[in-house]
Amino acid sequence: MNFGNEYLKVVRERFKSVKDLGDKTINQLSEEDIRWILNEESNSVAVIVKHLSGNMVSRWSDFLTSDGEKSYRNRDQEFENNISSKQELIAIWEKGWNILFNTLSDLGEQDLLKNIYIRSESHTVVDAIERQMAHYAYHVGQIVYIGKQLKDKDWKSLSIPKGKSEEYLEYMQKKHMEK
Asked: Could you tell me which InterPro entries the record lists for this protein (predicted)?
């Protein structure tokens, strides 16, 4: 087994898993829900999506050859709550993820220890990937948390529902025994 290629495979799966949590949350939210904020210091789901997408477009475009903080990025503008529709939100969301996944699919083991730059600071490709994974998981966790608060009893669980741990464990054991 080739460690570098296995790592890249695992990373792509983990990013897809993080995106899937966001997808499943966004699908449960209404047009009004995506713009909801608790207070002036809070970010709406729409703002978090704009920020994530802006970060992804900047970081993953020309990943190996240019600084991850592109001159065309306006990070402060990402925090304006001005997405007009859920359709627009999904288009912005998908744009960032598509760039990330296209870049990851182009990487090979030979790239993992190369140095890239983010805000003029040197990072190995592995470090940059891990940095972005933590950042995206953090913000998708915020999206999920907001979604759960807004949907309350109408929330459709994205993982093991409360009180169902034993059932899930039995299901997984049975599933793996059948293989």
From this structure: DinB/YfiT-like, DUF1572
